[in-house]
Write a structure and sequence with these properties.
Number of strands: 3
Strand order of the largest sheet: 1-2-3
Shape: elongated
Number of helices: 2
Largest sheet: 3 strands, antiparallel
Distance between the termini: 99 Å
């Protein structure tokens, strides 16, 4: 029983959905029956005027359609131009970012080189000062082994 109720409810929901999608028969979506005029039943001058009016309306509609078509073309061209300008702006922005990154990386590299040179000079200077200290303090200092000979005859590292 519950299965039938569910099935019935589902069917009713599907039917309501389909009914909402199916358009009501009408002359056109934007027209109503009142706007569709025919010249049937008119005679003489009235019929001629009615037909002229209908022709003018058709011509206005054609002009409106052509204008819309050209507007769409223009809009498409404007959209393409806007997209192109946006792409170029983004490209310039990316190039600017790349330039900033390259400049920052270059500055870091150059700074590292300068620091390495300064560090190696400081290291050499410290080694030279240490060697001079050990030579002055211990008369038997050996540079190659970085040690000195004590009074007991043993070799000790210079501290």
């Amino acid at each position: 029983m519950a299965f039938l109720c569910r099935r019935l409810a589902l069917s009713a929901g599907a039917l309501a959905y389909i009914v909402a999608l199916v358009p009501v028969s009408a002359p056109a979506a934007a027209q109503s029956w009142e706007s569709v005029r025919t010249c049937r039943g008119l005679d003489g001058r009235s019929r001629v005027n009615c037909e002229r009016e209908q022709e003018r309306e058709r011509e206005r509609e054609r002009v409106r359609w052509d204008k819309d078509r050209y507007d769409r073309k223009d809009r498409h061209a404007r959209d393409r131009e806007r997209d192109r300008r946006e792409w170029e702006r983004k490209k310039r922005k990316d190039a600017k970012k790349d330039g900033v990154v390259a400049g920052a990386v270059g500055a870091v590299v150059v700074g590292g080189i300068v620091a390495a040179i300064a560090s190696s000079e400081n290291k050499k200077k410290k080694e030279r000062q240490r060697r001079e200290y050990c030579e002055d303090r211990y008369g038997t200092y050996d540079v190659k082994s970085d040690s000195y000979r004590a009074s007991d005859g043993r070799w000790y590292p210079c501290e």
